[in-house]
Design goal:
With 378 residues, this protein is α+β, with helices and mostly antiparallel strands. The chain folds into three domains: 132 residues, 2-Layer Sandwich (Beta-Lactamase), CATH 3.30.450.20; 79 residues, Orthogonal Bundle (Helix Hairpins), CATH 1.10.287; 149 residues, Heat Shock Protein 90, CATH 3.30.565. The strands form three sheets. Strands 1, 2, 3, 4, 5 and 6 form a six-stranded antiparallel sheet that branches. Strands 8-10-11-13-12 form a five-stranded mixed sheet, covered by helices on one side. Strands 7-9 form a two-stranded antiparallel sheet. Helix 8 packs across helix 11.
Length: 378
């Protein structure tokens, strides 16, 4: 009996609540609450709608609802609302088959979810819509998807590019341990040398993975100092010459005729040049050439690495600095490595405050250029 009395009391209270109270509650709602008349003109626009869309209620009052939609959706939206009004149902979640998009006063589009309800007032349809800005949630979901993709890419690299040298190490170590004790020392040393090469390959890939992680976290640091260009270039050319000789590729590095210095982290600059020169050698067939030239500008120094390799298709050029992207083939995890050299190179150049860009075309070779700050003449 007590419960029945409470229910009756509550029902009586609801019947007597003033309309202004409901209007006040709608006005302060965080979501956008919008009402339209039978012509789809805005007749109610709460504070949540003002915050989300950037318009004041005065600005949109009497305007058609299309003002809040991206232009490409405006023509179809009017028909959708009219069709909903002609249907028997009263309420519906909008965007059941596609995402809803809103348009702010600034012109910015944003993802939204919305529900609409039809109310008949004096024989005419009035529409009430509640809309929520989900752009922040969508950004979080996109970031999560990217993180999952990055994890999958990383796993692909680890399982493919690390497995090959690891298997070589295991196979050669087993052959040494299980081989004939009387086997010549020279033969065993050849296998040990190959094991060392495989270990170096594993270590280099691990370092690349660590560097790309630091880049994405904004933690790649450089220790800037005055560095002599001739000294650094000579060191890098000498270090890459064995790779060029093995591939039958001519490697040249014309040195500046006058003393020239840059403001750079020597270790990172060597890593950068080794990445770019090594990449050029890999994509250059036997008999081809790779050249490194240096040009002094007023305030910076431009380094240019040019090869006579297979070149890069035009439609791949926008992606060459994407991590795990294979510039020469457009495939991830291809025979040319992990696809980390160019994105790491860009990160190193940008950490120095320089620029890097690439020019290429099918069967036209590739040229990579980057700039570093020129050190003041002593």
């Amino acid at each position: 009996m007590k419960n029945a009395n409470l229910a009756a009391e509550h029902a009586s209270m609801h019947r007597t609540l003033p309309v202004d109270l409901f209007a006040g509650l709608l006005a302060i709602a965080a979501d956008a609450v919008i009402a339209l008349d039978h012509e789809q003109r805005i007749i109610f626009f709460n504070e949540g709608a003002e915050r989300i869309f950037g318009y004041s209620a005065t600005e949109v009052g009497g305007q058609f609802i299309e003002i809040l939609l991206p232009e490409r959706f405006r023509a179809a939206h009017r028909g959708h609302v009219a069709g909903f009004g002609a249907a028997h149902g009263r309420a519906r979640l909008m965007g059941e088959r596609q995402q809803i998009s809103g348009r702010r006063k600034s012109g910015e589009e944003f993802a939204a979810e919305a529900a609409i309800e039809r109310i008949e007032v004096e024989g005419k349809n009035v529409y009430a819509a509640v809309l929520r800005d989900i752009s922040a949630r969508q950004r979080a979901e996109d970031a999560l998807r990217q993180a999952v993709q990055a994890r999958d890419d990383m796993m692909g690299i680890v399982s493919h590019d690390l497995r090959n040298p690891a298997n070589a190490v295991k196979m050669l170590a087993r052959s040494i341990l299980e081989g004939d004790p009387a086997e010549p020392v020279a033969t065993v040393m050849e296998r040990v040398a190959i094991i060392r090469q495989a270990a170096d390959q594993i270590d280099a890939l691990i370092q690349d993975l660590l560097d790309i992680t630091r880049l994405e976290a904004g933690r790649l640091t450089v220790r800037l100092a005055r560095e002599d260009v001739t000294s650094v270039v000579t060191q890098c050319i000498d270090g890459m010459r064995p790779l060029a000789d093995t591939g039958g590729v001519s490697l040249s590095g014309p040195l500046p005729t006058l003393p020239l210095s840059v403001v750079a982290d020597r270790d990172r600059l060597c890593q950068l040049l080794s990445n770019l020169i090594g990449n050029a050698i890999k994509f250059t067939p036997t008999g081809g050439s790779v050249a490194l030239t240096v040009t002094a500008r007023d305030e910076d120094v431009e380094f240019e690495i040019t090869d006579t390799g297979e070149g890069i298709p035009i439609d791949h050029l926008p992606h060459v600095f994407d991590r795990f992207y294979q510039a020469g083939t457009g495939r991830r995890g291809s025979r040319h490595g992990a696809g980390l050299g160019l994105p790491i190179s860009r990160g190193i150049v940008e950490a120095h405050g320089g620029r890097i860009w690439l020019e290429s075309g099918p069967s036209a070779g590739t040229t990579v250029r980057f700039t570093l700050l020129r050190a003041a003449d002593q």
